[in-house]
Amino acid sequence: MKTDTLIKKQRAFFDTGKTLAVTERMKALTSLEQALLAYEEKLSQALLADLGKSRAESYMCEIGLTLSELRYMKKHLVSFTKRRLIRTPLAQFPSKSFTIQEPYGVVLIMSPWNYPVLLTLEPLIGALAAGNCCVVKPSAYAPATSAVLAQMISETYKEEYVAVVEGGREENQNLLEQRFDYIFFTGGVRVGRLVMEKASAHLTPVTLELGGKSPCIVEHTADLKLTARRLVFGKYLNCGQTCVAPDYVLVEQEAEEELLHHIKREIVRQFGKKPLLNPSYGKMINQKHFDRVIGLINQKKVVHGGEWDAQTLQIAPTVLRGVTAEDALMQEEIFGPLLPIITVSSMKEAYTFVKHRPKPLALYLFTSDARIEERFLGQLSFGGGCVNDTIIHLATSEMGFGGVGSSGMGSYHGRKSFETFSHEKSIVKKFTWLDLPMRYQPYYKIKETLVRMFVK
Fold first, then answer.
1. 122 flagged as catalytic
2. Over 90: is that where the pLDDT of 451 sits?
C-alpha cells in the first residue's frame, strides 16, 4: 500500500473516534503485551542476528524493559486520561477550570537500529495509550528485528490502526513528505535535523531523541573500584552502541592510575580475557559502522584491548589513555566499545571542559563530595544522568527521558510518554447563575475599581 493511501486510511479510522475510549486503548496495550510475550523468542533471535545480543541482554535491555513500560502504562492509564481540575482565579467566578488530554491523530514513529525493539515499542506504547493511530518505521540497519516487528504488529492490529513501513532511505524520505499530526524520531543529529526540517513544512510537532558525547566525570573521592565496575557495564553494553553510553571519561589526575587499574580488571571480569570469544559479547551493526569505529583507534594510546575481528564485526572493549580534545575519537559520538580517558587537574577543569561543548544527552558523575554533586547537577545542562552509576536513569517509567539542545527535544517514558503524544486542552466552564458585569462596557469608575480588586 502506498504511504499516502495508508495515512488516509488511518486518518479515516481515527476520525471514527474508535481509538478514544479508554477501554479500547487498554485493549490495544493488552494486545501488544500478549504479542510481545508470544514473539519473545523470535525477537531474541532477531536481536542476536542483527547485533549479536545474548538472550539475557535482549531481555534485560529491550524486551523486559518494554514489558515493564507496558504494564506501568496499563496500571496508570485511567488516571492519565482523567480530567485534571485546575484552580480558577477569583476574577472568573463563578466557574471551574480543567484540562483534557486529547490524541494528536495519526503519528509517525521512526526508530533506530541499536535498540530496535525497545526504541520502537516504547514510543508506540505512549502513542496507543494517548489514543492515536500510528505508522511505525523501524531501521533498515536491523533487518531481522524489523521483519519480526512488522510480522508481530500486522498480526496484532489492523493497518488502519497501527502499521509498519519497512525499508531504507527512500521509504524514510517518502514518509517525511507526508503530513502527520506528530513525529517521534530516535536517531542521529544529522537525520534529526532533516526530520525537523520536513516536519516544519506542515507545522508538525516533533520529539527528537538524539545523542552526543556524554561525559563520565570521576572525582578523586569516588569509590574507584565500584566506579570502574559500573562504568564498564554502561560503556560496553551493546558494544557501546547506546545513545547514553559514557562517551569519554574525565578523571582527576590523582585518581587516574587506580581507576585505570580497576577498569582493566573489570573488563576481564565481565567479558573474559578474550572478549571476542565470549558468546555473550555482541558486534557492530554493519561493516560501515565497524570500519568507522576501527578508524578512531590510535594504537599508540591503547592501554587495554584494541583487537577486532573483521569477519564477525567485533571490536574488543578498548581503553585509550592520554587522549586530548583534538583526537579523532573526540570529534564525534563514538557509538562503539572505545573508552577515551582524559586527565584533568581539577573538577574545575572538568566542569569547564563539559560546559564549553554541546549539551550532552547524559552526564555521569562519580563522587562522594556533595558540593561537587550540587555544582555539576545544578549548573551544567544535559538531558539526564546518574550520580555514582551509568545508564540506569532511563530504565524507569517514573521519570521522563530526553535530551536538550543538540542532544534532542521532548521526553518520554511513563506519564511523559502519554503527555508527549497528547495535546492538553485548557477549558473554563462558566456557570450561568451569576454574571458579574464589571468586564462589560461601558467602563465606569466603580467597574475599574472592582477589576483592580480582582485582577492583581
1. no
2. no
